[in-house]
Amino acid sequence: MFKKILIANRGEIALRIISACRELGIKTVAIYSEADRDALHVRYADEDVCVGPYPSAASYLNISAIVSAAEITEADAIHPGYGFLSENAYFAEILHDCNITFIGPSPDSIRKMGDKALARKTVASAGVPTVPGSPGPVETVDEALAFARKAGYPVILKATAGGGGRGMRVARDERELAGAYDTAKAEAEKAFGNPDVYLEKYLDDPRHVEFQIFGDMHGNVRHMGERECSIQRRHQKLIEEAPSAALDPDLRARMGEAAVAAASAVSYTNAGTIEFLVDPHGHFYFMEMNTRLQVEHPVTEEVTGVDMVKEQIAVAAGAPLSFLDRDLKPRGHAIEFRINAEDPVSFKPSPGRIATFHTPGGLGVRVDTAAYQGYLIPPHYDSLIAKLIVHGVDRAEAIARGRRALDLFVVEGVKTTIPMHRRILDDADFIRGKLSTRFMERFAEAS
Ligand code: MV4
Predict the structure, then answer these.
(1) Which residues in the chain land under pLDDT 70?
(2) 447 vs 440: CA distance, rounded Å
(3) Separation of 154 CA from ligand 1 center, angstroms?
(4) pLDDT of residue 347
(5) Quick check: is 227 catalytic?
(6) Which of 10, 169, 227, 292 is catalytic?
(7) Model pLDDT, residue 427
């Protein structure tokens, strides 16, 4: 097992990783930027190293400074959290060369799944359903038009190097596709340094259901069930839950099997997520794989009882999966609310000093946060200040618990998304579990 882990991240996820290390008796090293001197992850770690000024490129993405910090403190592994360097194959490779364990998948898995067109092809060869689409990047506008004529409109152009909704364009007819093709390529080049785009048939109002998978270094790959992530806005998830009301046991089993096949196709190790779109008929299609721990992992932890960060660390150290002989059938229902320091109407970031911070507690209530009363939220990073996770015997109890926990969650000094979450919990469609990726459009119009 590792003796000391450096955490290459900040905020609530850095604290989450420190907690796992404490339970495992592993020492921790925090890194921080000059903007994060007063951050809790710096105080809670056993050691800390400043790796640069506030721009992320100079600090949390500064590979040479981070590797030096690990070498100076003699850390034997690095946990990247989510975002920042978590899906950087080059970083994983450098660590390998420096004899430091990257707590995550192999550079090869990260690369294969990072190229979204290649990922599609790879999982399709393993028998996983994908949306009808071009076999690879489309090289000319005529090739795009020819494909769309066969598949039928609407279609969606996606950047090969994109993901998470960035670099996508929907075209509803030939004229729109002809107009969007060059723009999409130019945008992809600008955003990702790679102009390649591919084409898929566009599904109009799907659900986003993702499967948590885990692989160890002994060839075992298992899934831990799904998360329903349809409540999002501008590709930022707002609410996630487990299990999904859209799946019956048969569909769950088939999607779980497909998720394991997708991960196995790249000999995946450690924690990963297979994203699917699900249409109203219960057809499901592979979208992409995220090769990291995700923000919403706590809902899976709540319904499976598995500490996923401890699992990541154990697997990276060579242990077999801890739940190989256990049935991870979800127990009860969990919902996560992302509490952002944002204006609840305009969604503009609302950085500033937190004057009052009172978190709810009690049975079935968990708050993952690095915020505290008096904390000055730096304007340089994402606006997530806390995750409220509620767990109940069923969805109705989880919703009731969510209502009371949101009512008892007091944040003053900055605007937050708490009032928006509270209103969503009174929405008739939400209560019925009638969710889709369009939910927030309708919700915004109605309120
Ligand atoms: C799609 C789609 C419809 N049809 N692909 C957005 C994130 C990225 N992972 C894939 N995305 C989509 N791909 C086809 N062929 C609709 C979306 C999409 C979406 C997906 C999940 C959650 C929210 C979304 C919001 C808008 C569009």
Answers:
(1) 447
(2) 10
(3) 13
(4) 82
(5) no
(6) 292
(7) 97
